[in-house]
Amino acid sequence: MTGKSVTGILFDFDGVLSSLMARIGWPYLWGLKKAKPDIKREVVLQTMNETLKAIISGEKVSPLYALMKFYEITNVRTLTPFQRLRFTISGAVMYYKSKMNIVPLPFVNEILTALLQEYKVGLVTSAERNVIERAKQKIPSLNNFDVIITRDDCNNAKPHPESILKGLKGLGLKPSDCIYIGDLPSDIVAAQRANVRSVSVLGEFGEHSMSRLKELNPTYIIPAIKDLPELLVEINKI
Length: 238
What we know:
Rossmann fold; 2 domains; 10 helices; globular
C-alpha cells in the first residue's frame, strides 16, 4: 500500500454503524439467562464474543442457520444438556425476532452525512441485503452510498477479501486510496488480504476483542465510530 491520503471509505455494518448488541447480542444473553438464570456474568462474556462473530461472519445460510450455530458453538461448560437445548431454541427464536432491529450507533448519521461530502463511501457487510434495506430507514445516509456489498452479493465470507474487492470496484478506486472500517478480526484480515488499510473500531465489545485485534495489527485502532473524523484528519496530514 503506497497511498497516504484517503479518498474512499468502506464501512462494515454491524458493530460499526449499527449496534451489534441490539441485533444479535441481546438474543444471546436472553437465551443464556432463560436457560440458566444464575449463570455468572464472566461466563457469559467469555463465550459471547466468539458466538457473535460466528453468527455474523457466516457464509450464505439456511433458515435454520442461527438454530444450528447457537447449538454448535455454545461452549458454556456449566450448562446441562437440557439447558443447552433450551438456550439454543430460546436464543435462535430471539435472534430471528431481533435481526431487523436496527439501532444506529451514536453520531453515525451525522458522521456519514459529513463524510459523503468529501469521500466516496461504500458498505461491505456480512449482513443480508434485506437487513440493509431496513437499515436505510434508520440510517438515511445509506441511500447515498456509492456502493453496497452484502452477504447476498458474495460467494465467500470475510475474512476472504472478495467483498472488499467488490467494494473497491464499485467505488472505482485502488486499494491504496481506501480504508476499511470494521470491528471483528475477520474484518481486519479481509482488509489486509485486499491490501487495504484497516481501521479497527473497538465499539461495544472492545474490552473482549482488544487483545486479538492488536495481534492482527490493524493499520489504525479507534474506540468508536465518532472518532473517525479526527483519524481522517491525521491520515490526510501525512
